[in-house]
Amino acid sequence: MADKLIIFDTTLRDGEQSPGASMTREEKLRIARQLERLRVDVIEAGFAASSNGDFEAVKSIADAIKDSTVCSLARANDRDISRAADALRGANSARIHTFIATSALHMEKKLRMTPDEVYEQARLAVRFARNLCADIEFSPEDGYRSDVDFLCRVLEAVIDEGASTINLPDTVGYAVPELYGNFIRTLRERIPNSDKAIWSVHCHNDLGMAVANSLAGVKIGGARQVECTINGLGERAGNCALEEVVMAVRTRRDHFGLEVGIDTSQIVPASRLVSQTTGFVVQPNKAVVGANAFAHASGIHQDGVLKARDTYEIMRAEDVGWSANKIVLGKLSGRNAFKQRLQELGIELGSEAEVNAAFARFKDLADRKSEIFDEDIIALVADESVTAEQEHFRLLALSQHSEMGERPHARVAFAAGDEEFHAESDGNGPVDASLKAIESKVQSGAEMLLYSVNAITSGSTESQGEVTVRLQHGGRVVNGVGADPDIVVASAKAYLAALNKLHQKGERVAAQG
Ligand code: KIV
Ligand code: ZN
Questions:
Q1: Cα 60 to ligand 2 centre (Å)
Q2: 20 to 30 A from 215, CA-CA: which of 167, 180, 281, 460?
Q3: If pLDDT is split at 50, 70 and 90, which confidence band does 221 have?
Q4: Are 185 and 222 in contact (CB under 8 A)?
């Protein structure tokens, strides 16, 4: 029996730290459920002590998830660790992941602590955590740039205190594969009690080597846990991409000799869900989950694949969850068929009211679009306006006029709480005019950092347009996503969705009558 490689997903914690990728509790819960279907071993659900919102998100996930271990990050202090333990109380299987920086640079400049103080704090934190939870992971932050002798001292002590997983972050993405692999091997060889812990890799992608470094940590270093995110989501250049590591280990089993427990057919649905929820678009040539990852355009390749698939394909598209766009429902489909398809897609809407709202939107869409695909349904429920109770701004009507040589003009009606607003504006284009009309009433003052449009299902102009709008206000960055066959309407929805997020986060964004 081959060794098992533990897949630790941190999309909801390290991935969410990416500016603009912050998610609501409901969104996180939806993603956590998909991660459970993907059969990841550990879901890092958040950083419970960082805010009440994060605490509630970790708690909801801990209460809902049955098959994966649910983990919360905690700094190495009693308050953070207690908050993590409280949030995880309902979990079937819980883990506390505590960390403190160990590089000379971080200890001196960031923590302003001596190495002895850091050593002591790490030890006591693990001791404290171990009394609250059976499963403790310890990370020396900026571990890869830390002094190896000091690291050996700290890691030996925390293993003695009961840490059962030791994770080695390359926090700034500085490592290269061979060196990172040797680094882990050296630590495992030098630390006398290293066999009492599972060793884990955590690599950032600043030099584009997060996946390669993680695999070297596994192959050369003997690590048996990889920390990763869906689509490689994460701060700066992101984290190690789950789909790439999993498919590398699976496809090159001859080389790695390891088992992963992942249901790979759930990879593409997970990728889509994360992308649609955060608005972080997956580049077409991205390995495994990019739209072109299995597309053969050149005649020679097409001919080869038709004759024998493995001439140019090392993985099968269907094994990672790519299916030909399936028409799943249409105008005549009823509520039960819709509900059943939601279930098949693993989407659980909280209340009957939410199902009704989603069904009403589905009917509305089916009236305007003859073929409804799975992607359309995912977009429909990812649209936060489905969950009516959290929606402050709602689009009611939009009309616009544009003609070559004329300046476009838009009229928009929207609700803000119980009030209805009517606004109009002209602009450089119909989208610009519509958003300016909304802003003329809302006066959020938010700066737009990103506006992007994508076709939800490729290959036809009948596809819905999916628009992402990223706004910045008061030091916060939020994404709004909107989908509609009409991209001007999708844009207005996305803009209002982003304003809703600013509103939820406590920004007082009040429309002016
Ligand atoms: O990159 C990092 O150092 C981290 C730790 C908190 C594990 O994410
Ligand atoms: Zn990290």
A1: 23
A2: 281
A3: very high
A4: yes
